[in-house]
Amino acid sequence: MKNDLMLIGEIAEFFSVSRKAIRLYEKKGIIKPVEVDAKTGYRYYSTEQVQQLNALLELKAMGFSLDEIKTIMDGGMTKEQLTAALQKKQQAWQEAMDAAKYKMECLGQVIRNVQNSKAAEKISEMTEEERAWLLVKMVCIEDVRAQKALSEALWL
Q1: Which of 23, 37, 54, 88 has its CA 20 to 30 A from that of 66?
Q2: pTM to 2 decimals?
Q3: What is the DSSP letter of 126?
């Protein structure tokens, strides 16, 4: 029977995860070895459990917590609840992509500001205060409250 089973080290290597991670998934009750050798303590996993680990890792890569994954894999969600959970993760990834896109645009603007700045040519020769003021003029401030606070501080 052990010919059909894989050791924890084998599936850990196959999926490029640590044995410690698999033991954590076991401790959380998400995946359990089909057999544990009483003498050696070796954990053995079936093909079905390897598939479960694959699903677990995919859900984890999508941003689900281990508790959420356990609920999903235990069948603790209806089709509607699973769909809602997936849509929520999709929205979170969309927001992260939008934030990353905004930061890329800001970086592009900062790069253009630096390239077009005559003062930036002497940035290494400036005092800390001069460098700080130059950078404030060039960088993109993403938080409106910070921009307002900075504006108020400049006029004090």
Answers
A1: 37
A2: 0.69
A3: S
Would you say 61 and 82 are in contact if contact means Cβ atoms under 8 Å apart?
Answer: no
Side-chain-facing half-sphere of 67: CA atoms under 13 Å: 0
Pairing relationship of beta strands 43-45 and 6-7 according to DSSP bridges? antiparallel
Mean pLDDT by 10 residues, the chain (156 residues): 81 93 94 91 89 94 95 92 96 94 86 84 86 78 57 63
Helices 66-73 and 79-116, interaxial angle, to 10°?
150
Helical pair 47-61 and 19-27, crossing angle rounded to 10 deg = 90
Lookup: tokens for 123: 């940035």
Q: Which residues contact 63 (CB under 8 A, 6 or more apart)?
A: 89, 92, 93
Polymer length of the chain: 156
